[in-house]
Design a protein that fits this description.
This protein has a 7-stranded parallel beta sheet, with helices on both faces. The relative contact order is 0.14. The chain is about 40% helix and about 20% strand. It is α/β, with parallel strands linked by helices. It starts with a strand and ends with a helix.
């Protein structure tokens, strides 16, 4: 039986209703907020056959565990968990456009949420995380992700290095980010099936992960800081992939 979870915030709830309406169980909303954005979600839930329950703001605060719920909290069935066994199907479906974001030990929920949001915007095939030493998708992650936690497939793997080798067997090029790399982000091509590996906050990639990568790159830094926040670095890397692929696509159309 699927576990029930709480999802709150306008963007997160909208993403659930639009992408996975079959998972909706209950809707709690406040009468203290009557703007069009909230009313739209309430009406959408009613069309799905779920009758909203109007409760005091304090009740929503408790259900959202103090998070910024923006007047709505829903109960939903948790999405089926993807594992290593789902990787071949994801690669087959995406083909040459395959783009995985791999987070090796990102434990901060805000960073995971921000990475999911960027991954959604960049059209990432799936985000891959290890089961241990990684943030789980909790209400904070869902809120920061602004709906992306409901749209981006999240794959949890037992052994990350083994999962990387499985991707290599599926002809996915594994590119890790490391400060000691000799090549920069802008010196590598990303036009085939690609996986970008981001390391943990502070410590970077684990040794075995680094050794399994096909190639290492670094983001050139011109200022005094020694590194970027992992979610910011993720955006920089993913959008270089997007940029190169758009150029390649435009060239093919000419």
């Amino acid at each position: 039986m699927s576990k029930k979870i709480s999802i709150f915030g306008l963007h997160s709830v909208r993403a659930l209703l639009e992408q996975h309406p079959e998972r909706l169980v209950e809707v709690y909303a406040t009468r203290e907020r009557q703007d069009a954005a909230l009313q739209e979600l309430v009406q959408q839930a009613q069309r799905l056959g779920v009758r909203p329950q109007f409760v005091p703001k304090a009740t929503l605060d408790k259900r959202a565990e103090g998070g910024n719920h923006q007047g709505i909290v829903v109960t939903a069935l948790e999405a089926p968990q993807l594992t290593e066994n789902d990787l071949p199907g994801l690669v087959e479906q995406a083909g040459d456009r395959t783009l995985f974001l791999i987070l090796d030990g990102v434990t901060d929920p805000h960073n995971l949420g921000a990475c999911l949001r960027t991954a959604d915007a960049a059209g990432v095939t799936a985000v891959i995380v290890p089961k241990d030493k990684s943030a789980s998708v909790n209400p904070t992650v869902r809120k920061v992700a602004s709906g992306a936690a409901e749209t981006v497939p999240l794959v949890q793997v037992t052994n990350l290095a083994r999962a990387l080798r499985e991707l290599q067997e599926l002809h996915v090029w594994i590119i890790g980010t490391a400060g000691e790399a000799t090549k920069t982000l802008y010196e590598v091509e990303y036009r085939g099936p690609t996986a970008i590996v981001m390391g943990a906050e502070g410590d970077g990639m684990r040794r075995l992960t680094r050794e399994t990568c096909d190639e290492l790159i670094k983001i050139p830094l011109s200022g005094t800081v020694s590194s970027l926040n992992v979610s910011v670095a993720t955006g920089v890397c993913l959008y270089e992939v997007v940029r190169q692929r758009l150029i390649s696509q435009q060239g093919a159309q000419q």
